[in-house]
């Protein structure tokens, strides 16, 4: 009797997987998890055809830079492929400390900690710093890793309208004034390409005594002097308490970072479960990010090329009458408004040899279903022309 009861419980989970509508649709149309057969720079091979990659976060185009590849190879040879343990126990190495010191100096912060994924760095920053009884002020359009951190923290969450200082003020004025407050925003919103209105948001946050956390995954490498990010772009220096982000975008690696005052970073090292109980980033990934960071400071041509490509690309999209949601950065959405319009557009681009990613509600707000595209410094003029032809073709399919 007891046994059959347990069998029934297990079946409930299996049925959940089998009956899941989103999974059925994904497998039917197969637009995600497409495994590319090879890659060189911004060209990927998919289904035996060469395609232009127009959805990568390799903004500066450094993932095929010879110095980055050499650094990763040398570090792997010297240190092996894995750290095989957490930083708090057997996993700490000199190369971790070296990258942390360099990132902290680059970002104008006292200290930094790196993790094996950006998702981990960002999530644990919020989850560890905020706690039950605190109030988190969160932009409605935050990335999933920030929402996960908010949920884990057990703090009360108050959402404000996307990038709206007026709404932040309104929400703050109605919140519990005695509670500790944490303001959570992104520097550049990855889907929208919007730059946070950081001067106004941090000023209001300061008035109400908020501790400010900025996820600058898409601002790092793209904005500010040498790509120092959104705080540098606005000259805000110490107005942001913690800057976290990813090594998998402009830094051409995988992993994440969080930078702030020494005492806050040491608090994180003591209290962040995701830091204490998860294996440290590998030598190869650390070395790749370290080499990319060096290149950002010595080869300005990549940042210049990124912005000149971005300008050309956006002008072309606007010329075709496409809605790019007022993107201000190389992350450029093409908003089509419904999944019925997004799929044929995406497919037309794919047929013309341009790889993009569909993003449909609930991943984006209802009515904002879009194709996510991102420009890289590595896109050539010839590729930009091919992209323009493919876009014109896709527009005709709408
Ligand atoms: C805003 C933002 N934060 C954090 C992350 C997580 O970074 P990673 O992919 O390196 O784990 C992403 C990834 O897309 C992101 O867009």
Keywords:
Aspartate Aminotransferase, domain 1, binds pyridoxal-5'-phosphate, Aspartate Aminotransferase, domain 2, seven-stranded mixed β-sheet, four-stranded mixed β-sheet, 14 strands, alpha/beta, 398 residues
Q: Could you write a compact summary of the structure shown?
A:
The chain is an alpha/beta fold. Helix content is 46%, strand content 16%.
Task: Describe the fold and architecture.
By secondary structure, the protein is an alpha/beta fold. It has two domains: 127 residues, Aspartate Aminotransferase, domain 1, CATH 3.90.1150; 233 residues, Aspartate Aminotransferase, domain 2 (3-Layer(aba) Sandwich), CATH 3.40.640. It is built from 16 helices and 14 strands. A seven-stranded mixed β-sheet has the order 4-10-9-8-7-5-6, sandwiched between helices. A four-stranded mixed β-sheet has the order 1-2-3-12. A three-stranded antiparallel β-sheet has the order 11-14-13, covered by helices on one side. Strand 1 and strand 2 form a beta hairpin. The model has no long low-confidence stretch (mean pLDDT 96). The site of pyridoxal-5'-phosphate has 14 residues, from helix 6.
